[in-house]
Amino acid sequence: MAMTMTTMAATETASGPAGHVPPSKMEVSGLDVFYGANQALFDVDMNVAENRVSALIGPSGCGKSTFLRCLNRMNDIIEGCKVSGNVLLDGNDIYARELDVVQLRARVGMVFQKPNPFPKSIYDNVAYGPRIHGLAENAGELDEIVENSLRRAGLFEEVAERMSASGTSLSGGQQQRLCIARAIAISPEVILMDEPCSALDPIATAKVEELIDALKQDFTIAIVTHNMQQAARVSQYTAFFHLGKLVEFGETEAIFTNPEEKRTQDYITGRFG
Amino acid sequence: MPEHTVTRYDEELDQMTGTILRMGGMVEQQLAKAITALIKRDPELAATVIADDQPIDQLEHEVDHLVMRLLALRQPMAVDLRLITASLKISSDLERIGDYAANVAKRASALAQVEPMRPMAVIPRMLEIVQAMIKDVLDAYMARDAEKALAVWRRDEEVDETYNSLFRELLTYMMEDPRHITPCTHLLFIAKNIERMGDHTTNIAETIAFLVTGTPIDEARPKGDTTPFATAPDEDSEKAELP
After folding, report:
1. In chain B, how many domains are there?
2. Do B76 and A273 touch (CB under 8 A)?
3. Residues of A contacting chain B (CB within 8 angstroms)
4. What is the CATH number of the domain that holds B225?
């Protein structure tokens, strides 16, 4: 099975083999976020490159998850949260008044820290999104979407014989891949991942990392992780946040081998605070 | 640089750099003894140099072990990663320099059996340059001083030039009288060994510059050993070297 081995794309650089800089899928500028009186993000400018993995790292409370949640307006549901600045998806403001947030989240999907399958069958977990978004004309098409999504999440062969079993009966690593299958079933353009491996064992983590590498062919990915080696392994771009500010952003290889900022160096080498 | 949150990590790094510096100190000592054995024509001293190469090899294994341990346990990043990989390379360069010092000592005891040769005078001078380079490069490693490393790197040209001119001189001597061939060949190998020590010291300098700055030295490397292109000297020995 393809997913049992972790291949390390160590030599792959951010700009890819052709050496060209990929276009930006999302552009963020002058982003300030407040939770009540507390400012969580200060004037953040950052672009998310298309068909690349961008990793967000930094100590707890640095604002990296807040930043991630701004990319599909997950902060809207948090009481007292105020967002200002520009967040563009394909050049369009996602905070525009007329924008449909449900449609936005169909284009910018999310995978969370703890696997959170619905208490439904494996099949229905994946079929849920396509159903409510009306993506399948008939049962056959829906079957196809479900199988395809599970295959791309590297889970199909493990669950093919028990599609009607509950999603929650799977192991933690399988549940997380089920959530990824659920996210990709509605064909989003961007996938946000908030510490997707922090609750998984090393083997399940390796499978998810392998999956992330494969998914960037079709999706733009932004991932928050506390595991620095993971950020170094899976991403092509890395952003380091500290105290609500974007300290350094650049090609992953440069950030982890020769960062420009002293604070980045101190953090990634384990010399912090 | 601030300390690591994990104190043991700092201790392991200190242990690694300490071992490298000990190796460096031993190599310096071996070199000094090899020079003396050569000048004083002292086979006994030469024998101690040959015997004392083994502890240097031992320290190289120790550095290998410490490096593997650090890589496995600490997943080093950025400057730490550069320090650890640099130390691995430096220890192998130092070990080679130690080998060359032992080789010089071996030939010193052979040379002690034959009549002294005049071109011999250049050898201690060459060794002194290399000795100074090794001292400076170890200082640069300890102080993480890229400028100092770069200065060492540039000085290797002097070693190469001395070697190239000595090579021509020895050829002339050998052509003059076939009885010179044995001592001159020994001298030639000694000179070549010293020239190689210079190259390994230059490698160390490059490694240190990368360790400090994170980018390789971008100057063109000074011209090295040109003797592979040399032919037998004719009347005008200046023409012995091809352009």
Report:
1. 1
2. no
3. 228-229, 232, 256-259, 265-266, 268-273
4. 1.20.58.220
Domain A22-116+190-268 is in which class? alpha beta
d(CA A256, CA B226): 40
Would B241 be classed as within a structural domain?
Answer: no
Distance, in Å, from the CA atom of A264 to the CA atom of A255, rounded to the nearest integer, reads 8
Distances (CA, A) of B128 to A78, A145, B31, B89, B160: 72, 76, 9, 24, 13
Average pLDDT of the residues in B46-59: 97
Looking at residue B234, what is its pLDDT?
56
Residue B36 lies in a domain: yes
Spell out which residues of chain B touch residue A265, defining contact as CB-CB under 8 Å. Answer: 78-79
pLDDT range class, residue B240, cuts 50, 70, 90: very low
Residue B207 lies in a domain: yes
Q: Rounded to two decimals, what is the model's pTM?
A: 0.80
pLDDT band with cut points at 50, 70 and 90 for residue A26: very high
Domain that holds residue B103: 3-233
Residues of A in contact with B5 (CB under 8 A): 270-273
Q: Is A197 helix (H, G, I), strand (E, B) or coil?
A: coil
Query: Is residue B243 domain-resident?
Result: no
> Residue A14: its pLDDT value, please?
53
A268: chain B residues, CB-CB within 8 Å: 77-78
Residues B142-165: tens digit of each pLDDT: 999 999 999 999 999 999 999 999
